[in-house]
Design goal:
By secondary structure, this protein is of the alpha/beta class. It has a single domain (8-192), classed as Maf protein, CATH 3.90.950. The protein is built from 6 helices and 7 strands, in the order βαβαββαββαβαα. The protein has helices at 16-24, 47-62, 90-101, 138-146, 174-178, 182-192; strands at residues 8-11, 30-31, 69-80, 83-85, 105-115, 123-133, 167-171. Strands 1, 2, 3, 4, 5, 6 and 7 form a 7-stranded mixed β-sheet that branches. The protein is globular, with a radius of gyration of 17 Å. Bound molecules: thymidine-5'-triphosphate. Residues 13-15, 17-18, 33, 58, 74-76, 78, 108, 153-155, 157-160, 177-179 line the site of thymidine-5'-triphosphate (TTP). It is found in: Cytoplasm. Keywords: Cytoplasm, Hydrolase, Nucleotide metabolism. Belongs to the Maf family. YhdE subfamily.
Length: 201
């Protein structure tokens, strides 16, 4: 596959969705999962600051291992009524989250940080996508929670999977909901000189 790298890139993430989106975008990269405790950030932090902070922490945890590469860290959350919804633990939490999102609009915030060990946080960006759920019946909620899909996903759903049936409307970046805003990420990597669209001889 044709790639657009000019320099080495490391993805500090264990998310299979982020891996798939980066591959789809034609970026060559290595994965090094950031081994961090996400609970170090206060869940009462405003949602945009929360994701920015976690994306920085993930990128910073991995970058020192790769002096000659750009390291990308990212974080995704769902926010409704200024409350952060992370990944549900167990059926009851999944059902509670999905019930809260039913028939309403919420924000999905993804932040990414691109850094190198010889620089401070070079770029941090946060993107907000507005998503409206249809009105869900209890049967639909329970059935979906039982598919197992909600449990490793912010807000308890996956728009790219079975969870597509929950979403009535979306305004903004689709890939941002899945875990990485590809358009903005590519722009940021290009402006740092990490990728290029022109062949160099
Ligand atoms: C809302 C939504 C989230 N998600 C996923 C994207 C992220 O993988 C996950 C949010 O958890 P994150 O903590 O952002 O990421 P992660 O734990 O999966 O991976 P890492 O910290 O190693 O980078 O939710 C979907 O896949 N689809 C969706 O529709």
């Amino acid at each position: 596959m044709k790639t657009i790298n000019k320099e080495k890139i490391v993805l500090a993430s264990g998310s299979p969705r982020r891996k798939a989106l980066m591959t789809q975008a034609g970026i060559a990269f290595k994965i090094h999962v950031a081994d961090i405790d996400e609970s170090i950030v206060d869940p009462g932090t405003p949602p945009e600051n929360y994701v920015c902070l976690l994306s920085k922490i993930k990128a910073r945890a991995v970058a020192p291992n790769y002096p000659d590469a750009w390291t990308i860290g990212a974080d995704t959350i769902v926010a409704i009524d200024n409350t952060i919804l992370g990944k549900p633990v167990g059926h009851l939490q999944a059902v509670t989250m999905l019930s809260r999102l039913s028939n309403r609009e919420h924000s999905v915030f993804t932040a990414f940080t691109i850094t190198r060990p010889d620089a401070h946080d070079v770029v941090t960006r946060v993107i907000n996508t507005r998503v409206r759920f249809k009105k869900l019946s209890n049967d639909e909620i329970n059935w979906y929670a039982d598919t197992g899909e909600p449990y490793d996903k912010a807000g308890g759903y996956g728009i790219q999977g079975i969870g597509a049936f929950l979403v009535k409307e979306i305004s903004g970046s689709y890939t941002n909901v899945v875990g990485l805003p590809v358009c903005e990420l590519i722009d940021a990597l290009a402006s740092l000189g990490a990728i290029r669209f022109k062949e160099t001889k």
